[in-house]
# Entry
Amino acid sequence: MPSEEYRRLWATPGWLPEEIGVIINNGQFFCYEGEELRYQLQRGYHDMSVYSLTGVVVNIETGQPSRGNHLVAVANGKSSKIMGWGDGYLKLTHPTVAHSAPVAPNESQWYLLNDFHIKPVTTEEALTFNTSWKMPSVITYQRKEANNKLDATWKEKLDTSLLYVDLRPNVPDKTYRTLDSEAEKPNSDTIIAIDTEFVAISKAEVMIESETNETRIVRPVVHALARASVLRGSGHDEGLAFIDDYIHIREPVIDYVTAYSGIVPEDLDPARTTHNLVPLKIAYKKMWILLNLGCKFLGHGLKQDFRVINIHVPQDQIIDTSDLFFSAARKRKLSLQFLAWCLLKEEIQLETHDSIEDAKTALKLYRKYQEFLDAGILEAMLQDIFNKGSAHNFKPPTKQSRTETPPVEGGSGPTTPGRRPGALFMGSSPSWTPGNSSRVR
# Structure
């Protein structure tokens, strides 16, 4: 446990400086801050290295032994794009540490990173500590002369061989075909369609307040990635999967969520599976390679997929069909199943979900969106879609079963209702089908 003297010093306002200067002279170490730092820089007598504070990991003491402590981070950052406010937190599309931005921002802006939430805070709030509940755990400084100097040459030497290797070539009835190392080289112009399935590996922990008798979730359900499917988004084989990985999960699975995921125990059992079962790090590495190659990730409600994969994709690499067919004036996102019925005259998710089917459907919807946009009728078609949705409660009219994708705890991505037979196309524009150039008709 930290001593009281340690706690008292850290709780002193301004104790942690945003800039420090270091001089090493004849084996002696000297550190300066504030006015002393400016004075030494003006004198210029010694070779001084100046460091700027980039971030702090803070230990939050909950005061409840059963809950333990909690780590959060504060970082000196910036974001060129801001989505808006939600749940009391600012949603940033691509937050960047200020010292690692290509161009230095005009001023510092500190952000609190707490799990999946990012919230702007003042410098005072970020760097003020409290002896009773908030103390620093890790402090990071970066040499100032290295700020805003990025070296991305490592991407030119990126090992992409994993994308072209079939780790289980003898799997029967394959649902995928790996990329051709000569003819199919993903790059920043490549569109890939993606969808995932997940299972639960931990139940939610619930606490009942003794005084109010109210139920509060202490720890949400923990989900694990169980299947990741990635499809070609263009070319002769558009719509054909080149990744369909089932994940070997080492933790005990408490709920396979089969009604939503389509995953059953034997799918993830090495002794019984007929699928391409791989360790999580292999599936993640493939996604990481595609991300750093600059590929555009296309899907429906991708926020939830990225949360399950636990990967951040910059906004300019995301094509989300739930956003393409969204109108702020109507304030409603449409499900994949409803859009498939309404625009494609297709029935999906009759019994459960299939990640290849869902990714392919999102790809077809994207092509439909492009057709509407090119023809100059997008707004008119959106109006027709919402009129049709209002008439049918945004569900296919003959739907018999419903299997909505349960949102990951803390997420607010759109859900995907289950399919029903007997789909009818929206009457106002029956002639719109995927164009001749599309391979996913």
Observations:
- The mean pLDDT is 82.
